Amino acid sequence: MEITRVLDAALRKAAAVWITSTGHEPRLVHAHWRADALWVISGGTEPTLPGLADGAQITVTVRSPSTHSHLIDAQAVAHLTEPDDETALALKTARLNTKPEWDVVYRLEFSS
Description:
Elements (H helix, E strand, L loop, with lengths): L2 H9 L4 E6 L5 E8 L2 E6 L14 E7 L6 E12 L3 H10 L9 E7 L2
Antiparallel strand pairs: 1-2, 1-4, 2-3, 3-6, 4-5, 5-6
Organism: Lentzea waywayandensis
Protein name: Pyridoxamine 5'-phosphate oxidase
């Protein structure tokens, strides 16, 4: 099965994922699935993600939103980006309990 279909199904309800970058412990981060990529924010009022940089190879671990059991580990490449207005709004509204401000946005792209 193509990885984006698995991720699409898993991330429709998951609001957070675990991200592991080389040399760093896994970090739980809020994320937003959009256009076959995972968007994460770092810095500002959000946690800084050590090891996450443009071009970094990372592992994304997704857990079931209902049972919290492990669903999938997927390899991704981080791309530092400036989100368009629609994506920025989606990132802000996805965080229901806070009004996030961030220093950087990464688009995590998965290989099929």
